[in-house]
Amino acid sequence: MPYRTKEEKGEFVVSCDGLKDRDAFVDAARGAFSILYDIEASRGSNERVKVVVEAKSAEELLAQWLSELIERQVVYDIVYGDFSIVSIQKISPTHYLLTGAARGETYDRKKHPFPRPGLEVKRKGISCSGEGKKSYHCEFRVHKLES
Q1: What does the alpha-carbon distance between residue 26 and residue 36 come to, in Å, rounded to a whole number?
Q2: Are residues 85 and 6 in contact, defined by beta-carbon separation less than 8 angstroms?
Q3: How many domains does the chain have?
Q4: Which of these, 17, 59, 132, 139, is most buried using a 10 Å CB contact count?
C-alpha cells in the first residue's frame, strides 16, 4: 500500500503499511522524500547508490535507513526518487541488517527546492510496528516551521 501524508500539530506525518517489511521500508523512503521535495521529478534517473545499515531493532533499522538516505542526499548532492530493498536480515534478536539502493539525479535548486518552503529537516520521530507479523506500519515525522 502506498504512503499517506497528513499535517498534524505542526508536523508533516508520513505513514505507510506493507505486507512485507521491504514494502513498508520503500514506502517510508518515498513518503519521507516526497515531503522534502518532488520525487517524481527525479524518478528513473541514473545516479544510484547502495545503502547498507545495521540496527538493534526493526524500528531503529527504519530510522537508520531514512537517516542514511537523507545524509547521502546531502553529501552526494543527489535527489532520490526511486528506492529498493535488496534484503532485510534478522541476524540475531538484536542485530538487523538492511541492504538497499536509491536512484536519483544531481540536485538542481530550481527543479528541487530543498527543503520545501516552510519545512525544517529535523526528524521528529520514526516508528515501525508489526515485527513478527505479516504487516508493518511505519511513520516518519518532519517539523513544520511556524509562519
Answers
A1: 16
A2: no
A3: 1
A4: 139
- The C-alpha torsion from 34 through 95 and 97 to 68, rounded to 10°, is 40
Give the Cα separation of 86 and 76 in Å (integer): 21
Would you list the DSSP string of 89-132? EEEETTEEEEEEEEEEEE--TTTS-SSPTTEEEEEEEEEEE-TT
Q: What is the pLDDT of residues 27-80, one digit of tens each?
A: 888 887 887 777 776 665 678 889 999 999 887 888 888 889 988 887 888 888
Kindly state the helix (H) or strand (E) to which residue 33 belongs, with its residue range: helix 21-36
- Which three three-digit cell numbers place residue 47? 545516479
Radius of gyration (Cα) for the chain, nearest Å? 15
Q: What is the CATH number of the domain that holds 121?
A: 3.55.10.10
Beta bridge mates, 104: 47, 80
**pTM of this structure:** 0.77
Q: Which domain holds residue 41?
A: 4-144
**Which residues 6+ apart lie within 8 Å of 87 measured at CB?**
97, 98, 99
Rounded Cα gap, residues 16 and 4, in angstroms: 6
